[in-house]
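Budget justification aside, the reviewers requested a transparent look at the raw inputs and outputs of the sequence design task funded under Objective 1. We therefore reproduce one unedited record. The lines immediately below are the structure tokens for a 314-residue chain.
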């Protein structure tokens, strides 16, 4: 889709380039807010896995996962630099602002990707390294390069990349991938569409101006609101599956049910609202971030409490 000069004026950053990239610019390439959520969900997967893992090995595994996630984010920014500068949400990223050259970002991201996978394979185990490599490749090649600009299902399929970290953490700790680890993957996988489509509802013009076929742009906002509700209904029972599989207990189950009911209420409100009011979509997007963090915090808290009780009993 062609972009006219008015679109460029709206989306282009007005800040002057600041020269060579500093530490803060390269840290921004790693998408630290995304990295923090990736790191936390990986930690939960690692903690829920059975068996004992040396604290140093566990720390190294988490560092590798965080670096790998950040590296794929840097490559994503390199590839999307042409559209990032024309979107209000992304125009202040380091490459559009001229703080980091695209080639430097690509080298930076590629180097960290290779280093994180090699370190994971050498210091932790081959399975977790293979999963980390798959995650990076999926995000870069499947989502960023292939899906994002070609299909409104970009978020649905591409969301798998963000769902792998707890599975990687579990594999790092136990060396296998049981159904409980897959359940953690499924929670994030089915959470991703309503989370990102809520954002896309009130950022539809941003995506339309740069030709990215997000669902509201291609199918309309009414269809997007309906899909948000459908995925939210599917997500609710999936969040309870760790209890059925024995990975979590009733404390998590009760908390997940309450949090899920609030999520569903937000999704219903989005579904019932017309195109002229984006407040429900903004609320759902904001709550969805808290929701995912709270779910995994409940898992972690329950596991830590159980460990303390077992220690006291011994």
């Amino acid at each position: 889709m062609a972009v006219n000069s008015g679109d460029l004026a709206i989306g282009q950053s007005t800040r002057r380039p600041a020269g060579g990239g500093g530490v803060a610019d390269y840290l921004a390439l790693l998408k630290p807010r995304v990295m923090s959520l990736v790191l936390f969900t990986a930690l939960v997967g690692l903690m829920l896995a059975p068996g004992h893992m040396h604290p140093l090995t566990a720390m190294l595994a988490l560092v590798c996962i965080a670096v790998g996630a950040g590296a794929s984010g840097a490559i994503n920014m390199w590839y999307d630099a042409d559209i990032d500068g024309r979107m209000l949400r992304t125009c202040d990223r380091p490459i559009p602002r001229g703080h980091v050259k695209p080639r430097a970002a690509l080298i930076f991201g590629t180097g960290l990707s290779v280093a994180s996978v090699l370190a994971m394979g050498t210091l932790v185990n081959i399975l977790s390294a293979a999963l980390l490599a798959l995650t990076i490749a999926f995000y870069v090649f499947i989502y960023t390069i292939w899906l994002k600009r070609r299909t409104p299902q970009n978020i649905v399929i591409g969301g798998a990349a963000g769902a792998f970290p707890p599975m990687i953490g579990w594999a790092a700790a136990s060396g296998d991938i049981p159904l409980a680890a897959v359940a953690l993957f499924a929670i994030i996988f089915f959470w991703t569409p309503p989370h990102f489509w809520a954002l896309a509802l009130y950022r539809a013009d941003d995506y339309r101006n740069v030709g990215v076929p997000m669902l509201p742009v291609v199918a309309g906002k009414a269809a997007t609101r309906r899909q948000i509700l459908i995925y939210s209904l599917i997500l609710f029972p999936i969040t309870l599956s760790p209890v059925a599989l024995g990975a979590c207990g009733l404390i998590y189950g009760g908390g997940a049910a309450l949090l899920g009911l609030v999520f569903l209420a937000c999704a219903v409100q989005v579904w019932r609202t017309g195109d002229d009011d984006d407040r429900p979509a903004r609320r759902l997007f904001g709550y969805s971030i808290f929701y995912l963090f709270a779910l995994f915090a409940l898992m972690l808290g329950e596991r830590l409490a159980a460990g303390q009780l077992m220690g006291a009993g011994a």
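The longest helix spans residues 279-313. Confidence is low (pLDDT under 50) at residues 1-19. Computational costs for records of this kind are itemized in the attached budget.
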